[in-house]
């Protein structure tokens, strides 16, 4: 097909509308290019529940096999299950998913052996270049010996591995509502939770890539309303919501109130530090709460602050040997999971922490909710650089204020901070603010928004 790869090859993955922007013929070329760039003898391929995923995945495998690469196809899986397979089998991997995007979208998340990420600077630009060349000149010449295609189910091994990383042997009975959003959590949760003393209340476990109930993006408050209501109706101990490819997990407490991913990051960081002997590096991005580095230090760890984005987290995890990393977007990264992100492992940590003591989740997490945050507020801005410069000028000469430009602009005072950073793909500025109390947070949030939107 005549495709514009600049529109679908993103910074960290391939993503676009099927069949308008890409199709199985293009997926086959991507498979061949992935084989060529990784120079692998074998790869592993999996896919989510979207209607287009099986065909795209099969075409990709066919393209790789044509160049002599053996392909292990694991079929339906979550993204972190694909990372498990890449790590456990030590093979490069390809996951067909568009995460929480609408049904007409699909994409490919790629990794090298051991779940090492593939982005623009680590192979994706080369893959695009090869595919663009083959679109003009025809498919690459096949290998003398075609690679094999083998079907393997890794779900039980994935579940067993996750449970080997968290001690769940002595947890009390818990009632858990899980909203899978018709995504891959409906496939993985029953097996991961099997045999645990949990009363599971499933919501939208039917695999349906048309997302008939709500968008599978739990960070949008509109998409957890059903979960919050059900938790209250069931008098459940907590609720869990997964996104479409089930690599992110969002938590609500027993009252149905959403739990900040920063609080989950702090909780899991404390547990991982204890599991690693009371020391280690923990990565957090610059829009996580002040609570996170405080808790890390209190538990003997070393916090390291990074830019927003999984590529920065994963790179810093590898560089520093960090044991854990967390983002405010509900991505959680573990050294013992090949530095890859797995919301399911974070969920197991929450169940273990709650189940080994008697207080409700809201009380347990009160130690990790020390400040008031605004959440992310987006503003449409034509001149992103100009508005950031205006904010910098407004705060530059104020006493007790520090400015840093690690990612956008962060303005920090003794009792508050805010960060403004531009979107890479849209004319937006994203504001996150936090303060020691709500009136201060609202004041500084409104002050920043006035400058951004003026």
TrEMBL record:
Which is an annotated Pfam family here? Answer: PGM_PMM_III
Signal peptide location in the record?
none
The domain of life for this entry's organism is Bacteria
Which cofactors must be present for this protein to function? Mg(2+)
Record keywords, A-Z: Isomerase, Magnesium, Metal-binding, Phosphoprotein
Q: Which residues form the Alpha-D-phosphohexomutase alpha/beta/alpha domain?
A: 7-132, 157-256, 266-371
Record has Magnesium as a keyword: yes
Q: Give the matching InterPro entries.
A: A-D-PHexomutase_a/b/a-I (IPR005844), A-D-PHexomutase_a/b/a-I/II/III (IPR016055), A-D-PHexomutase_a/b/a-II (IPR005845), A-D-PHexomutase_a/b/a-III (IPR005846), A-D-PHexomutase_C (IPR005843), A-D-PHexomutase_C_sf (IPR036900), Alpha-D-phosphohexomutase_SF (IPR005841)
The Alpha-D-phosphohexomutase C-terminal domain sits at 376-448
Query: Which Gene3D superfamilies does UniProt cross-reference here?
Result: Alpha-D-Glucose-1,6-Bisphosphate, subunit A, domain 3, Alpha-D-phosphohexomutase, C-terminal domain
What family does this belong to? Belongs to the phosphohexose mutase family.
List the protein's name.
Phosphomannomutase/phosphoglucomutase
């Amino acid at each position: 097909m005549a495709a514009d790869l600049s529109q679908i090859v993103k910074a960290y993955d391939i993503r676009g509308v099927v069949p308008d922007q890409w199709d199985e013929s293009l997926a086959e070329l991507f498979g061949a290019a992935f084989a060529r760039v990784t120079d692998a003898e074998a790869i592993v391929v999996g896919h989510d529940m979207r209607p287009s995923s099986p065909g795209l995945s099969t075409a990709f495998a066919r393209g790789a096999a044509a160049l002599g690469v053996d392909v292990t196809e694991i079929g339906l899986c979550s993204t972190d299950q694909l990372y498990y397979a890449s790590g456990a089998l030590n093979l490069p991997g390809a996951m067909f998913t568009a995460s929480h995007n609408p049904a007409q979208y699909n994409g490919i998340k790629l990794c090298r052996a051991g779940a090492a990420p593939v982005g623009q600077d680590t192979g994706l630009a080369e893959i695009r270049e090869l595919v663009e060349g083959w679109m003009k000149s025809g498919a690459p010449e096949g290998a003398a010996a075609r690679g094999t295609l083998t079907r393997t189910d890794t779900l039980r091994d994935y579940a067993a591995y996750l449970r080997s990383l968290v001690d769940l042997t002595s947890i009390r009975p818990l009632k858990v509502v899980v909203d899978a959003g018709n995504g891959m959590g409906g496939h993985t949760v029953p097996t991961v939770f099997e045999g645990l003393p949990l009363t599971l209340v499933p919501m939208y476990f039917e695999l349906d890539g048309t997302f008939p109930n709500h968008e599978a993006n739990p960070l949008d408050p509109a998409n957890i309303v059903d979960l919050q209501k059900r938790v209250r109706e069931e008098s459940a101990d907590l609720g869990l919501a997964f996104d479409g490819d089930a690599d992110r997990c969002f938590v609500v407490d027993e009252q149905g109130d959403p739990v900040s991913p920063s609080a989950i990051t702090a909780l899991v960081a404390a547990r991982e530090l204890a599991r690693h002997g009371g020391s280690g590096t923990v990565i957090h991005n610059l829009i996580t709460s002040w609570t996170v580095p405080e808790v890390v230090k209190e538990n003997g760890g070393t916090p390291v602050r990074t830019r927003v984005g999984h590529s920065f987290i994963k790179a810093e995890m590898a560089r520093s040997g960090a044991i854990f990393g967390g983002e405010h977007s509900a991505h959680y990264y573990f050294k013992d999971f090949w530095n890859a992100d797995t919301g399911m492992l974070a969920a197991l940590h929450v169940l273990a922490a709650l189940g080994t003591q008697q207080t409700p989740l809201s009380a347990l997490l009160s130690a990790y909710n020390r400040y008031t945050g605004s959440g992310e507020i987006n503003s449409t801005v034509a001149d992103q650089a100009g508005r950031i410069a205006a904010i910098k000028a407004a705060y530059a000469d104020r006493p007790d204020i520090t400015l840093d430009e690690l990612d956008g602009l962060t303005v920090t005072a003794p009792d508050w901070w805010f960060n403004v950073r531009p979107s890479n793909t849209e004319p937006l500025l994203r504001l996150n603010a936090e303060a020691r109390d709500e009136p201060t947070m609202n004041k500084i949030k409104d002050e920043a928004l006035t400058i951004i939107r003026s």
